[in-house]
Specification:
Number of strands: 7
CATH topology of the domain at 35-130: Immunoglobulin-like
Distance between the termini: 63 Å
Helix content: 10-25%
Number of helices: 3
Largest sheet: 4 strands, antiparallel
Structural class: alpha+beta
Radius of gyration: 22 Å
């Protein structure tokens, strides 16, 4: 058996630094990971994307499809937020852009979106020929 020395010194220091930096300013996931939390679901008829974007209205979010790439981005004026004095921040609205490569089984002309209570849901219907039909038993004669 061979033993290999393992050194992860940078990771632990980074995690501790992030912990204290977060405690001092803001505990929002968006601040230190630079991402928008999202879910991807699949059922028989479609795929669904759910993005958690508190602090945005539907007018501040743009969705487009170009060259089989779905782009979701925000266009929010953040000056009022930056000039406010927060005692504690649980989330920070930040402009973002998120891209998703669409597979060939998605019907791009029928994509729809709904926005409710800070959750953006994008419905990506599957093409008709891709939707699996129930199995049919065939009698042997």
């Amino acid at each position: 058996m061979n033993l290999v020395r393992f050194h992860n010194g940078g990771l632990n220091r980074y995690l501790v630094d992030q912990l204290f930096r977060t405690m001092e300013t803001n505990d929002s996931r968006q601040e230190y990971c630079g991402c928008v939390p999202s879910n991807v679901l699949e059922n028989e008829k479609d795929y669904r994307l759910e993005l958690s974007i508190p602090g945005f209205s539907k007018e501040e979010v743009k969705i487009s499809v170009q060259k089989n790439v779905l782009t979701i981005k925000s266009e929010k004026n953040l000056e009022d937020i930056e000039n406010s004095k927060y005692l504690r921040r649980g989330f920070t609205p930040q402009n973002f852009e998120k891209n998703f490569q669409l597979s060939k089984d998605i019907d791009g002309d029928k994509i729809s979106a709904h926005f409710n209570n800070g959750i953006l849901e994008v419905v990506l219907p599957k093409k008709e020929e891709v939707v699996e039909k129930a199995a049919i038993e065939i009698a042997i004669q």
